[in-house]
Amino acid sequence: MKGIIASQIGIFVMIGRLTLAPVAEGAEGYVRISEDRRGFAVGGVPWYPFGCNYFDPYVGWPPKLWQRFDAEKVESHFRVMRGLGVKVVRVFLTAQSFFPEPPDLQKDGLEKFDRMLAIARRYGIRVHPTGPDHWEGNPVWRRTDFIADPQALESQAAFWRAFARRYRDEPAIFAYDILNEPHVRWNSPAMRAQWPNWLREDYTTLDSLRKAWGDEGKSVQSFDQIEIPADAAASGSRALLDYQRFREWVAERWLRVQVAAIRAEDPNHLVTVGLIQWSVPVLCGKPSQYAAFRPDRIAPMLDFLSIHFYPLYGSDPTLSQESFGRNLAYLELVLRYVKAGAPGKPLLIQEFGWHGGDKPNVPDERSPRDQASWCREAVLQGRGIAAGWLNWAYADTPTARDLTKFSGLVTEDGRTKPWGITFRELATNSSLWYGPPDKPRAEAGFDVKQAVCDPQAADAMLQRYYEAWKVDRRCALHLR
């Protein structure tokens, strides 16, 4: 308890040095894309979305924020976040608490979200809602392939129409994040039903398909007989490449419907979608791991791009110097790939952390310093590419079964971690990480068509990028 009190006193002192500026009302309060199209602005003044993903660390795992909502605890967390320089929090809406039965939003969930927005307004923090997700249970409408199934697609669009209609005049909302880490399934009833139809529309005739597919198409007698390709690398397979193109088409169709639903009701807020890092086809393992939300194909529908990144390149969870460099190169490749597909649109790193995978590190005495070192260097590596960063997550979560157990800015009992101190330095001095790149950029070829079909070839491309990155001396770290 003494540690918690001491930490909170320290945070209160920090707040005293910051100006508590509530979110402005009216048109001047909304976040816009900046005039130079590289970042964001509020009221014509540059604004930098530096913050974190938020949920109460003591509401179970996955977090049951809305089912166990405690406004006093939420306010205490926002007070701490304000002291750390947090400007935006990403929060997960859940299907069960907000939209259990289409087409109506759940009153109880909305009342709790309204209370959070009121708290956020007072502390000058903007909220970045994402969802609806599965963390508090999956209603019937979501127990299917909710990206490919037309009925589920329309149910999710109904949610966004209703939600955007309700909050169109709320400047405390930064932007809508349509879904967390969407991923097009490889094989489902909806995918099997639509694959032949897509081929029929794309090729028109069997002769055209046979000509394009070569030996793979010789035995094809009907579009309806063409099965989904095996989920295995097949270098040079036209059928596999077409299936990845089909998955990208499914992703585009789903996203187009969701974006249209929002824009029909709300002209004030920006729209994005939280891409998993396997939207960039490296370190995928097998073709199905590619998420199929291809940045350059979905960018025209969105106001800005969002990507998640965790250092998964290599097996050393303690981030040795070699692993450190490999993952910085991997990060740079991911950010450059996404940014190249969205010219003139900002890029937000919507989740990032100091290690990845579903097995949490058991931290030793060096781990808090490792976290601060990695996260700081990751942010600096994105200079000239990224327009904002959101840490995963606000606090260490004791019941988590993945990296969330040790990825917070503060410990589970509220003590500021070394990364929290470093985070505040970055949050309050955007010139450290936002601006033109201060290093040369590595160059290495990246063949997307080959990468989505051949994970080993994609990994070889990443290795070549890393080698080029080392030659460019981009591995010179900023560590203190």
Structural features, described:
This protein is α/β, with parallel strands linked by helices and 480 residues long. It has one domain (2-100, 117-137, 170-184, 269-471): Glycosidases (TIM Barrel), CATH 3.20.20.80. Helix content is 39%, strand content 11%. The protein has 14 helices and eleven strands. An eight-stranded parallel β-sheet has the order 6-5-4-11-10-9-8-7. The longest helix is centred in the middle third of the chain and has 28 residues, at 238-265. It is globular. Mean pLDDT is 91; it is low at 1-17 and 475-480.
Concise summary:
The chain is of the alpha/beta class. Helix content is about 40%, strand content about 10%.
Provide the descriptors you would attach to this structure in a database record.
39% helix; disordered C terminus; alpha/beta; eight-stranded parallel beta sheet; three-stranded antiparallel beta sheet; 11 strands; TIM Barrel; 480 residues
The CATH level-2 architecture is identified as Alpha-Beta Barrel
Q: Topology as H/E string?
A: HEEEEHEHHEHEHHHEHEHEHEHHH
The tally of helices reads 14
The shape, in one word, is globular
Helix content: 25-40%
List strands and helices in order, with pairings.
Layout: H1 2-17, E1 31-33, E2 40-42, E3 45-47, E4 50-53, H2 71-83, E5 88-94, H3 95-98, H4 107-122, E6 126-133, H5 150-167, E7 175-180, H6 189-203, H7 206-213, H8 238-265, E8 270-275, H9 295-298, E9 305-309, H10 321-340, E10 347-352, H11 367-381, E11 388-391, H12 418-427, H13 448-451, H14 455-471
Parallel strand pairs: 4-5, 4-11, 5-6, 7-8, 8-9, 9-10, 10-11
Antiparallel strand pairs: 1-2, 2-3
